[in-house]
Amino acid sequence: MSTTGALTFGVSLKMYFGVEETLSWCRQVAEIAKRHEAVISGAAEIFVLPSMPVVAQVRDVFAETPISVGAQNLFWEDRGAFTGEVSGVMLRELGCRYVEVGHAERRRLFGESNEIVAIKVAAALRNSLVPVICVGEMQRGNMQQASASCMTELDAALQYATNNQVLGPVVVAYEPQWAIGAPAPAPPEHIRHVCGELRRWVASRASELPSSRVIYGGSAGHGLLSRLADSVDGLFLGRFVHDPNTFKVILDEVAAIKNHSG
Question: What is the pTM of this model?
Answer without folding.
Answer: 0.94
